[in-house]
Each structure stands twice: as C-alpha cells, then as structure tokens.
Amino acid sequence: MENKNLLEIKDLKVSFFTSAGEVKAVDGISYSLEKGRVMGIVGESGSGKSVEAYSIMGLLQSPGKVVGGSIIFDGKDVLAMGEKEKQTMRGSEISMIFQNPMTCLNPVYTIGNQLVEAVLCHEKIPRKEAERRAKEMLELVGINNVEKRMTQYPHEFSGGMRQRVMIAMGLICNPKLLIADEPTTALDVTIQAQILELMKQLQQKINMSIIFITHNLGVVAEICDWVSVMYAGHIIESGSVNDIFYNPKHPYTHGLLRSMPRVDAESHERLIPIEGTPVDMLDPPEGCPFGPRCEHCMKICLREAPPNIRVEGGHTAACWLLARDCGKEGGRNE
C-alpha cells in the first residue's frame, strides 16, 4: 500500500551547544504530513519552529546539531544523506521561503538572473527554457510586465512584489514540499491576504504540501488543514484547524486564542495576555514546560512532563489536566 505521508518526523531532538550550556531547541517532536496537505506550526518566538524547519532542509549550522530522532522525506532518510544529496533535494524537492524574504534576494543580480539560476542549479536545460519558465512563474504569482521585471533589481520592487518573487523562486522547480517560515510577517494586511490566497491557489494547482510556520493564528485559520502548537521545543497540542480553534485542550492554546483579537468580539472586550515569561532554554523546568506560566498548574506539572493524550481522532494534547480527566472525557494515552 502506498504511503500517504510525504514527511514523517519521529522524536526529533535538536540542540545548540553554547559556552553557557546545551540549549534543547527542539526536544522530541513527532508528526507526519500527508501529500497535498497544509500544516501550520504556531507558537511564540523561540519555541523551536524555525530550527525544526532548518533541520528538515539540512541547513542547521554550528553550534546547532540534530542529536536524536529521524526525518523521513518521501521514503528517504534526510539525516543519513550526504551534502550533495541534500543540495539536490533542496529547491527541487523541498523549498523554503525564509523568515525575512525581504533581505534574501541578492541586491547585485537582477530578478531574472536569480530565478534562472534557481532552475539551472537543479535541471540541465537550455538557458532560454529556464528564462521562459521564470517568466511564466512571475506571471503565475501575479507580477505584470515580466519582460521588464526580469531585468530589474530587488530594490526596484515593493515589499509585496519581492515576497511574490521569493514564492516564485520557491516554486519554480515544482517541489513536493514548501516550508514557509513566517512569510507574511513584514507585510501589511492587504498584501498578506493576497499572498495567502496566492499560496492556496498554487498549492491546489500543483498538489504540493506546505508547512506554514507562524505566530499568527489568523493566518493558520486561513490556509491550514492541520495545526501543531509548539512551546519550548515541544509540540504541546496537535489537531485539525477546527479542533484547535473550537475545542482547544491545552492551557497554552487557550492563552494564544484569548490574546488574539476577534471580529465577533464585543466592542470593549479586553485581550488577556499570557502571564509570565518564556522558558529559559538553558534551564528548562523538570515537568511541563508551560507549568510556571499556567493558571491551572498543579504540583505534578512541576515534577513530571505530561503524557500526550489523545482527545478524539487525531487531536492530541500534552497536559496533566487531560490525564486526570481522561476517564471522564474518553481520552487515552498516546
């Protein structure tokens, strides 16, 4: 039987070995992504979202190191690949839109040169063919007058247009997986909506899988099928978009939702922030990483890490509140 999963991550652990000590940036996360699906990864800054993405791409740099677990992409073990294999995979099979695409374009090369180079790095085709494909991709992402745009430099493009160029560069080799690392952070809401609509259309057109990394739950609701909520290097809740928005089970997920403005809220409804500060990753708590900030914290939360409890279907959450009530609510240990 054909495996439906394009990406399978099992017990992935990534650490940064610094002079101050070991920082466990990703501490034992597991999930799978089906072909043609869009998964959102949300959480505060420093929760390990980008580190996980760089691990999948094989772009971790010293002092970062994968210290455990496995990454299986399309049946291939990414961590066992040599550097040449990773270079072949990057761009052609897995592409990434980086966290600050505004500065990722080379200022001394034209837009056309950079798009054509992305094609020629992975495919042995004539330059004329690569140029034709680059123009088609620019049109596909909504850029007009492509003949002129191909000869222009990044500084001649607006922020939204540079964002579209980065998406075009990520998609030009028709990858099976696109990792979008907060690609709309620096854009105003109008351009953000256009970019999200564009990505949805392209995803459906070429049946590509997407990992969408963001701290914006509104963006998640717009584009994703599945959501994983990260905190302090752990996935603390995972489920469908409906599960996370309408039936959240982890106190951290509740906190994220309460701190987000709602269109249907009362006119003077106050946003409730999450109290406390993020975990010191050099000295994380022994138990639940969210325990010191949690309004429902119990003694066991500070002593032991909670088990991952299945609520229903694929909806899971790691919280002692669920473990305590699992008999009543029908949950069970994963």
Q: What's the name of the CATH homologous superfamily?
A: P-loop containing nucleotide triphosphate hydrolases
Radius of gyration: 21 Å
The CATH class, by name, is Alpha Beta
* Fraction of helical residues: 25-40%
- Give the topology string: H per helix, E per strand: EEEHEEHEHHHHEHEHEEHHHEEHE
Counting DSSP E segments of at least 2 residues, the number of strands comes to 13
Quote the CATH topology.
Answer: Rossmann fold
Q: How many separate helices?
A: 12
Strand order, largest beta sheet: 6-7-8-3-9-10-12-11-13
Question: What is the overall shape?
Answer: globular
Any guess at the CATH architecture? Answer: 3-Layer(aba) Sandwich
Q: How many structural domains does the protein architecture include?
A: 1
- End-to-end Cα distance, whole Å, is 24 Å
Q: Specify the structural class.
A: alpha/beta
Largest sheet: 9 strands, mixed
In the predicted model, the low-confidence regions spanning at least 5 consecutive residues are: 327-333
Strand percentage lies at 25-35%
Mean pLDDT: 86
Subcellular location: Cell membrane
Family: Belongs to the ABC transporter superfamily.
Domain ABC transporter: 7-257
GO molecular function: ATP binding; ATP hydrolysis activity
